[in-house]
């Protein structure tokens, strides 16, 4: 599950492209399949979205929730790929992007009527 926050006037026009870029990074770095896209966009009014100094109204927060198991090198590669491609393909400067990876143990995930540690048919590797 990926949640993307931003000021609605800046985020709404970019949603489709940003989703494509994020998913492309998830595929190339983590090996996620094409049909494994779960993005939630939260466009906010400017008065509801406070952000750090030195950032523009294009400031965008990306929270990536995933099962535990990726190495630090893989996680860093994902973050760097996101910064690079979001800048080159969407036009948001890295200073205006904040990325947080949130990992939880597989037993803390629930989908298709089971917990993540019970799933044996995932079409992607978690330990990469």
UniProtKB/TrEMBL annotation:
It comes from the Bacteria. This is Tautomerase enzyme. Gene3D superfamilies: Macrophage Migration Inhibitory Factor (3.30.429.10). Coiled coil: none annotated.
């Amino acid at each position: 599950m990926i949640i993307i926050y931003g000021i609605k006037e800046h985020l709404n026009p970019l949603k489709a492209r940003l989703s494509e870029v994020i998913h492309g990074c998830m595929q190339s770095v983590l090996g996620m399949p094409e049909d494994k896209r779960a993005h939630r966009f939260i466009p906010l009014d400017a008065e509801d979205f406070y952000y750090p100094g030195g950032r523009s109204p294009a400031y965008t927060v990306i929270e990536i929730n995933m099962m535990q198991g990726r190495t630090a090198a893989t996680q860093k590669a994902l973050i760097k790929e996101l910064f690079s491609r979001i800048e080159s393909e969407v036009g948001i400067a890295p200073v205006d992007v904040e990325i947080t990876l949130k990992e939880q143990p597989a037993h803390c995930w629930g989908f298709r009527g089971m917990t993540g540690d019970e799933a044996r048919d995932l079409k992607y590797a978690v330990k990469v």
